[in-house]
Amino acid sequence: METVKLNNGVEMPVIGLGTFKANDPDECEQGVVDALEVGYRMIDTAQSYGNEEYIGKALKRSGVKRADIFLTTKVWFRNFENARASVEESMRRLGTDYLDLVLLHWPFGNTYAAYRDLEKMLKEGSVRAIGVSNFNPDRLIDIIEYNEVVPAVDQIETNLAAQQLEAHEWLVKYGVQHEGYSPFGRGRMDGIYDNPVLVSIAEKYNKTPRQITLKYQLQCGVVIIPKSVHKARIIENLDLFDFSLDSGDMAALKGLDRNAPMTGTPQNPETVIRSLYW
How many CA atoms lie within 13 A of 86 on its CB side? Predict the structure, then answer.
């Protein structure tokens, strides 16, 4: 597994297993076990996903040493007033006494209090890296300017239709790792996988269009967390390290960007959060 070095020196795998909406206990647990079996070493979850306990059981079943797994969770914004307690509860559910990465899930509520709780946990060693999720550049820079620790990661929706090119430039400028969720757009990208440009590139490398999508993001410097609970797809999503896209293909894929994230960071959380989680 290839890794990137975060701004605090911690090594992070470039690909992990996403678990958003992996809510069936048996299916979620088996998916994580399968992912660890075939070589994944990063698992991404969140308090709002409701599956931390299932993932904790899978980590125990897997037989993989805890030290070899990069484990991420996210603090739900309604828990920001006491982020420490909520993170400690996440660790209990996950069956671990430390976390590799903890993110503030949305830029709503008392982000300052929550982030400063995370800074304290980072100094104490119960968390190895801290960051944010769904923070646009303006909110990210605000966190940077008014706190001690520069976020190690900003996890934002990133896929061919929403490549986050401008945001990526800001993340590079401030030394924050760009991590992309929903790399396939959760099936809502209007036939993009039938696009002749993408299909042609996939045929050229004898890969699937989805593998080309993932590889493109990796070569753009984005850490990716494709979600699946099906072992064949889990394996397919990891089979990315035996080829490289040439500069012409990279340019062609960049041209598919619509600058159209499906999630984004709305001013009022009720407009999107309810549709995602409630």
Answer: 23
